Here is the input.
Amino acid sequence: MTMRKKLGLVLVITLLINAVYAQDQGKIFPSNKTVKDYPHTGEPAMPVVKPILDVPLRDVSICMGGDKYYYLTGTLGPDFMVSNEGIRIWKSKDLKNWEPLGLVWGIDRDGTWQKQWTTKNGNKRRALWAPEIHYMKGNYYIAYCITGLGTGLLKSASGKAEGPYASVNKPDSPLTPGIDASLFQDDDGKVYFLSGRGMISQMNDDMTALVTKPVMLHTSVPDNDIEHHHPSRPCTDMYHVGFEGVYLFKRNGRYYLSCAERYYERYHCMTAESTNLMGPYSARYVSVPYAGHNNFFQDTKGNWWSTMFGNDPDAPFQKLAGIIPIEFDKDGHIKPKVN
Here is the structure.
């Protein structure tokens, strides 16, 4: 048996063991606890953070465009979980003053498969979640998902952030099942489509299709503390980085994989690292408190930032766009930059 097969067998056995453990622990779930029932344990210090936009938003995404302007989008409210109109974008030169560019893609106006309503727990829903704007290959792309239907990818027909946008993939149908789509471009120019809690596929050169089947990115070290996982969903994978909101970037030859997690009931950004794209990744850690389902970006001066929106009562604010300065410690790990 080759070393790779042995390692694969060990991983499978460990996952099964942890699945049994999680099932047993899951007897106490769903939990009635709130963030007030848990101590603060191990989170890094946070600077003072205030909203940068007075508009109800979740899953905030910011990128710097080819014109050196910043572009912001996110899940539109106020009825976030059930329905919304589509994707709106804002533009800024200084990350402080934001100009609305309007509805750049609407479900009713521009949708095809996205127009379908689905039902969950007896309730109808049709919402576009977590639009994520990227500038790559000289154009603007928006990865997104539709509740109950799957993920998609849009490309600007004008080469400008304000669009108009149209589906990239042919045929025009969901790229993957699930939620929370994202994009990553490696140093060699290859683009990867990510979704959910760490699924990844390589795209073809013109980004119209996936050329590899989605596979799950894992850490090499399990987090077996059930209180570090979503309390109403007993975890069967102790090797994931988080349960949703995947994002990936690269710095100094190191890949940073982040996801959102209900860590002691707080919606934190968890991060793991690797020198190989496909992993395995290091043990996960709380990189940016309260910044679950975020993205990271650099400004024109090279400074790094994390987006946030606030999803629990302990967060600095609730369901509004914010940004947090970050830095990298001596070991290369992410933490908020205080003062």
Observations:
- The chain has a mean pLDDT of 91.
- The longest strand covers residues 53-64.
- Residues 258 and 271 are 4 Å apart (CA to CA).
